[in-house]
Amino acid sequence: MAAPKSSDHAAHQKTPVTILTGFLGAGKTTLLNYILKAKGSRSIAVIENEFGEVNIDSALVADNLLAKEDLVSLENGCVCCSLRKDIVKAFAEIERRSRHQGKRVDAIVLETTGLADPAPVAFTFFANPWLASRYRLDSIICVVDARYLMQHLEDGKHPEGPINEAVQQIAFADLILLNKVDLVADEDAKRQVLSAIKRINNSARIIECQLNQETGRPPMETLLFNNLFSVNRVLEQVDPQFLDSDSDDDGDDDQLPPPQSAASPEWQLPGHQADRDIMDRTASGAHASSSAGPSASAPGTRPTSVTEAGAPVTTAAAPSTTLAAGREDRAALAAAAAAARTEAQAGPGGGGASGAGAGPDSSNPSAAALIGDADAAAGAATTAAAAASDAATARALLKYQQRLSGHKHGRDGQPSSGGHHPHKGGHHHPHSALECEDNCEECKVAVGMKAQAERNPKRRAKRLHDLSDISSVGIMARGPLDEYRFNMYMRDLLAEKAQDIFRCKGVLSVHGYGSTKFVFQGVHETICYGPAEQPWRPDEAPVNQVVFIGRGLDRKALIEGFRTCVWVPLPDGWDEFRDPATKQPYYVHRASGEKTWTRPEFACPRVVATQGATMQPSKLLPRRQHPQHPQEQAVGAAAAGAAQQQQQDPAAALAVTPAGTVPSAGALGTASN
Ligand SMILES: Nc1nc2c(ncn2[C@@H]2O[C@H](COP(=O)(O)OP(=O)(O)OP(=O)(O)O)[C@@H](O)[C@H]2O)c(=O)[nH]1
């Protein structure tokens, strides 16, 4: 077997990252749980991103992780919008933990929110040199909800308006899991969904599945370590401006490479010394491709890709080049300058990468730039870009080359493009990914970027990812829920709002079920309840946590309604019974024989419902004062009479049930998830 090429080797040193995307409720967490169960001896770390105010998924995923250290949560925000900086922090956190435990992470799965646009998330792995130097995007997997896809595609957004998340998620996917095929009415409906997917993305592999059934899941080997992501495909088929993603010029710090000096504040990772370790080593960066990357010689870290292709250097301080570097160029400039410095230190004939020679190294752009030879520098930058084994470096070098060309030739200067570039190990990389005998990624990246520069040198206007009309309401409440009331609450809510409530989910404690922890999951009107894999732990306070995600949510009404679902003890002398047919509870006073369908006491002294907080209830809702004794309350003769009448005529019960309805099929405790 042929020895792997150095660039391949470098790529394999990087930890593969799988981005798990798919619309709200499509089945991402179900897939993740399957992956974690089927992973065997491989060590997989998880980064969870939840849109909702309360993080439910982390609790459900954590049960399947061997160690809770393997899970990092990015809460209450969408990873593609507000949290991109946090992506880097999350990866740093995983490294910190794995180093602390002395174990290697074989792969990382990043589950985005169901409302995430995967493009900027994927872009981060190319734009951020620290990430690019140690992680490679293995694939983007999109889980599609076969039942609701058409509805999500037709969300009324104009093609030129804000992005449709469901479309973006499918378009960027390398692998599409068409899930919930059991919920699609017939073959025609399935065919319609399939052709809609293919119209958006005709090159991704599509696997039909039913992820909540053991027999309906795709084999594990189709999911991870499959190296499916191709920048070239994205540039050619999905988004020619992918590598010009939206924060180059907008002043965001999200895409900034880690600092060239320890003084750069935006990359100070808070809190941990180990994080600062990353910072420190980042600051003193030891390798040419990723001046920002930790030293390859540092314990527990991996060598950066270009290190294997080029010369290690002693410092990565930014060069005093005569050309102003944009933020995106910093890594390449620093890399090139560092290489130049090493060479300078080595002196002519001193064993530098380019060997002896009085002139500037023709393969070192900064060396050439430093002595003012723009032609040589531009050529060298192009060569370096073609040889760079990660996209971020290639991209930065190409931009640098353009800048150098522009410096000499004015704004119209185009990247020079020789036919073939000498490559590491004498391998020649033609300027067409299709011609490249190895079909290697660096050719694809370099070519893609060149094509992109030629096609459209200007950035398009950024398309909005507009979530302004979508919100989430998170509610936490202590104390077990009253099963019947909760069923009523959900049933009435969904009867009215199912279209707008994209997603609801929660973990519940229910009166009468001991330590059983219930999970409830809703996607539009499809809702199911069932026991979680693990009961409430003895040391765990059973706090109900639910989250609603949707359009035009009435926060106050949702919280108020949920509050009435909390079970409270009956006053002395009252017993609760259940109608065997409807499961509706009724109450009988032991001494007087009085019977009522209305709960004798409405007070909820133990309810602690909060809004917005993720971990701890921070704000108590005002408590209502309610009569404490059944005789004091307004059960009233009419209600009592109606209750009695209902004994003979069950239909009449509808008039006195709290929600005026009867429990639905699939109600809590009667259906399983
Ligand atoms: N009928 C059916 N239900 C499924 C299938 N796969 C998953 N589900 C259910 O769909 C619901 C949502 O699944 P999740 O895995 O939580 O979906 P998700 O994409 O992670 O949801 P968000 O993170 O909220 O976007 C759960 O109740 C799952 O049990 C399937 O193949 N068929």
UniProtKB/TrEMBL annotation:
PROSITE patterns: WW_DOMAIN_2. Residues 245-255 have a biased composition (Acidic residues). InterPro entries: CobW-likC_sf, CobW-like_C, CobW/HypB/UreG_nucleotide-bd, P-loop_NTPase, WW_dom, WW_dom_sf, Zinc-reg_GTPase_activator. Signal peptide: none annotated. Residues 420-431 have a biased composition (Basic residues). GO terms for cellular component: cytoplasm. Pfam families: cobW, CobW_C, WW. This is WW domain-containing protein. GO terms for molecular function: hydrolase activity; nucleotide binding. It comes from Astrephomene gubernaculifera. Belongs to the SIMIBI class G3E GTPase family. ZNG1 subfamily.
